[in-house]
Amino acid sequence: MNSVFELSGPQADSFMTLIFDNEIENRDNDHAGNFKLNELSYWIIKKTDFSVKKYFIICTPENGVNLIRYMLDNKSVFDFKIVGDEAYNIFRIERGIPAVPNEINDFNNPLEIGLGSDVSFTKGCYIGQEVIARLDTYDKVQRSLKGITSDTDKGLTDNASIIYESKEIGKITSSVYSPNLKKNIALGLIKNEFNKNGLSVFTKDEAGTLCKINIVDLPFKK
After folding, report:
1. What is the pTM of this model?
2. The pLDDT of residue 120
């Protein structure tokens, strides 16, 4: 069994260079490489998702504990912190990053949720290849992931319908209160003809009351 750590943020490149030396800075995105730290082994994958620089670090649990301790003891001027699931969920929704199982599941295709850059259109013989290729070639993607804001004090509800003029046009996939934006926000998969920035629509809040919400572009902005 291995542990997987994700390190992300605008300082990710510089901090990882500090920890693992300059070799990691020249590593191409989406390629795994083996790196040593204090004679311990780590597999590292460098990525840029939704304009967020990040590194995935794969190692044994014991090596992971040593790595975190080393990072905390040697963070220098960097604002390195460990965050829990709740804080990360707020961060990813604010950035419009899809996650399992809310957005990434058997019912949504990668092109709908903004993962087109992670799909290969040249590699053959994988599950769903023909469907994805047709959607892309003939511009048949019918939904897209958008941001949703609400001024109500009640939280929004995952999987709640999004309504426009008595018609269901989408579903809320992830919702959270954002301390940064000081409002309830959500991600939603919405039919393309209705996903204009600023469009006012309706859904039900966590109390079951119909409330007005607004469709906005991602990532969220103050």
Report:
1. 0.86
2. 86
